[in-house]
Design goal:
Distance between the termini: 37 Å
Largest sheet: 4 strands, antiparallel
Amino acid sequence: MIDRLPRPDRLRLLAACERVPLRPSQILCRSGQVIRHAYFPIGGLISLLTRDDEQPSIEVGMVGREGMLGMSLVLGVGRAPLGAMVQGAGEAWRLAAPALKRELLLSAALRRCLNRYIAISMAGFATSVGCQHAHLLAPRLARWLLMSLDRASGRELLVTQSWIARMLGVRREGVTEIALKLQAAGLIRYARGHITVLDRGGLESRSCGCYAASRLEYERLLPGLAPASAPLPPAIPG
């Protein structure tokens, strides 16, 4: 996202940022807390989580190198409506809330880009809720794997079935059953918290239409910024 800004705006923004690591399971903010920083991931993956005092948090969105964490700050709201936890390790540019406010005043390009990203994210939240209630677990799991893969580097995800079950709001046994079927079909390989995607096209054919709809929304509002992995190299049998 930062790379899309005009050079003067980009350099000024980066000068105000600090580069920080993103560690798996790291809490970047909690629902209802004051937002002190915005994050622009360089690599890695952040899960956006609901808060429910009676049920475990579930994932309603993801942030990777295509986006930013801290959308409420752009809208002038200082508290986080969702929690944010690192799902995949990486790094991010971290920007203090006052500095982001200043940059938004100085850069029309940044305002335009972030406003469109917010519109895409809002549509994604609605899609995620609808998907949870309307679609079976198998296509939902395929969609989740694709969304995670799009924001990761390469073809491998370091994630446990328990984590996936938590993010989808389902029982672990259900995820295990579907994962075994995907593995038997030659679409993925799973072992000890490592999921390797062997056949991306096959996985897309198993996903619900929500995945394609999300990508179309990116292309409509922010052409060329849709999170997508480069074409996967041939898988190594094993």
